[in-house]
């Protein structure tokens, strides 16, 4: 018996208008349908006003209020992927014609009436370039109304009201529109609403209806119930049932058409899944800790040891080879398995009298060690050592060769 999981996905468009589309998606998983809904809402790039410079404002509204309203005005963003760059990807320092669009608004009321300042008063400043200069790929792929407010100078589309002014009042400002996605701010969302429904009869019992007497009369089914068969009163509940039909109603704000929104949403979801699969195939290994670069930590160059897991001159790793302390020029580190070098080690070989000392608790460390002893009871190798130049030791003294006590850059230490 062939199940719906073996069938290919089916898309049936039930209604299509200039700014909205209603369709049914069948033979897909619930996770895919919900992911598609989220991508359509938050991951499709558009153009929106991101910065407002107010030059004159004598209206009754403050600058922040007006700037917020202008930022929410939808702008035509057809072919936004190729028509404009992200600001973070551009080589300019403060915005250019390839990553931003400049708009101007200059309105004043000279009559004894109330004047509406709307999105139709926003004017796009065309990019400037000299004759013979190559305008670039981005500029050639923009439409004539790219960056204009949606529905500007169209009789069938009402403009967006920004504010109202009276005689003697004016509003003059400069706007900079940039490319972005709704994950950064809702003003970049191409959709004003995305309706998503499945299982209109609640056969799967994913929803619990609060009711007083009869949930059927208090919670009537919607139009999507016509696409499915009503449940019987004696029907047994199926624990293994899964939703197979999903009903979408996508309404755009006019910055992008419904067809472009759906196609770009599918392409973006496909790209995300492809990147995930590629990352799993590559098998990227995450670092286990520490900085393994050649320049050491925070750019400090070490002549012997590093903090990496396999540094030959001693480190924080499990295989420190030789060294005599955290900042020793001999290559010491905080190790647990070093052979002859120092470190915070627990290896028996380090606690029985190595050539260079270790920060250990073994009593044999201070009895049989050579001139490079450790943090034991030796009067020359303690925190309070009276010798200011214990060159052969490995403590935190004021030695000019090792330790943190010197104000100058050490051979293998930090300049404090």
UniProtKB/TrEMBL annotation:
Protein name: DNA-directed RNA polymerase II subunit RPB3
Disordered as annotated region, ranges: 337-416
An example Gene Ontology molecular-function term: DNA-directed RNA polymerase activity
Keyword Transferase among UniProt keywords: no
Family: Belongs to the archaeal Rpo3/eukaryotic RPB3 RNA polymerase subunit family.
GO cellular component term of the entry, any: RNA polymerase II, core complex
InterPro entries with a match to the protein in the record: DNA-dir_RNA_pol_30-40kDasu_CS (IPR001514), DNA-dir_RNA_pol_insert (IPR011262), DNA-dir_RNA_pol_RpoA/D/Rpb3 (IPR011263), RBP11-like (IPR036603), RNAP_Rpo3/Rpb3/RPAC1 (IPR022842), RNApol_insert_sf (IPR036643), Rpo3/RPB3_RNA_Pol_subunit (IPR050518)
HAMAP family (alphabetical): RNApol_arch_Rpo3
One Pfam family, short name: RNA_pol_L
SMART domains: RPOLD (SM00662)
Organism the protein comes from: Suillus luteus UH-Slu-Lm8-n1
All residue ranges annotated as the DNA-directed RNA polymerase RpoA/D/Rpb3-type domain in the record: 20-279
Domain of life: Eukaryota
Cellular location(s): Nucleus
Biased composition (Low complexity): 384-406
Polar residues: bias regions: 350-365, 407-416
Keywords: DNA-directed RNA polymerase, Nucleus, Transcription
CDD domains for the chain: RNAP_II_RPB3
Gene Ontology process terms (BP): transcription by RNA polymerase II
Keyword Transcription regulation in annotation: no
Gene3D superfamilies: DNA-directed RNA polymerase, insert domain (2.170.120.12), RNA polymerase, RBP11-like subunit (3.30.1360.10)
């Amino acid at each position: 018996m062939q199940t719906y999981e073996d069938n290919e996905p089916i898309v049936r468009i039930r209604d299509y208008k200039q700014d909205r589309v209603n369709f049914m998606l069948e033979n897909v998983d619930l996770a895919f349908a919900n992911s598609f809904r989220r991508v359509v809402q938050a991951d499709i790039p558009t153009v929106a006003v991101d910065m407002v410079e107010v030059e004159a404002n004598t209206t009754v509204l403050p600058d922040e209020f007006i700037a917020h309203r202008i930022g929410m005005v939808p702008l035509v963003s057809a072919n936004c992927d190729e028509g404009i760059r992200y600001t973070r990807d551009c080589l300019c320092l403060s915005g250019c014609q390839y990553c931003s669009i400049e708009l101007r608004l200059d309105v004043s009321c000279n009559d004894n009436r109330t004047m509406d300042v709307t999105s139709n008063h926003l004017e796009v400043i065309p990019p400037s370039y000299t004759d013979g200069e190559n305008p670039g790929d981005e500029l050639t792929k923009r439409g004539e109304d790219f960056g204009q407010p949606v529905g500007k100078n169209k009789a069938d589309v009402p403009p967006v009201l920004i504010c109202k002014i009276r005689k003697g009042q004016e509003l003059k400002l400069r706007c900079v529109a940039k490319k972005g996605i709704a994950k950064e701010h809702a003003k970049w969302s191409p959709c004003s609403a995305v309706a998503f429904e499945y299982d209109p009869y609640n056969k799967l019992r994913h929803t619990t209806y609060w009711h007083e007497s009869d949930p059927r009369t208090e919670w009537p089914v919607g139009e999507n119930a016509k696409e499915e068969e009503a449940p019987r009163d004696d029907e047994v509940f199926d624990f293994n049932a899964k939703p197979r039909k999903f009903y979408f109603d996508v309404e755009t704000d006019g910055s992008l058409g419904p067809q472009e929104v759906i196609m770009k949403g599918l392409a973006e979801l496909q790209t995300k899944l492809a990147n995930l699969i590629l990352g799993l195939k590559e098998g990227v290994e995450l670092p286990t800790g520490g900085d393994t670069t050649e320049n050491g930590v925070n750019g400090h160059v070490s002549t012997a040891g590093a903090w990496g897991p396999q540094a030959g001159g001693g480190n924080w790793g499990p295989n420190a080879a030789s060294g005599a302390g955290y900042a020793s020029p001999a290559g010491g580190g905080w190790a647990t398995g070093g052979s002859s070098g120092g470190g915070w080690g627990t290896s028996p070989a380090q606690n029985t009298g190595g050539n260079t000392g270790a920060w250990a608790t073994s009593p044999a460390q201070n009895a049989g060690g050579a001139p490079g002893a450790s943090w034991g009871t030796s009067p020359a190798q303690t925190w309070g050592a009276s010798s200011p130049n214990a060159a052969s030791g490995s403590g935190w003294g004021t030695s000019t060769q090792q330790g943190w006590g010197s104000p100058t850059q050490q051979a293998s230490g930090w300049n404090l």
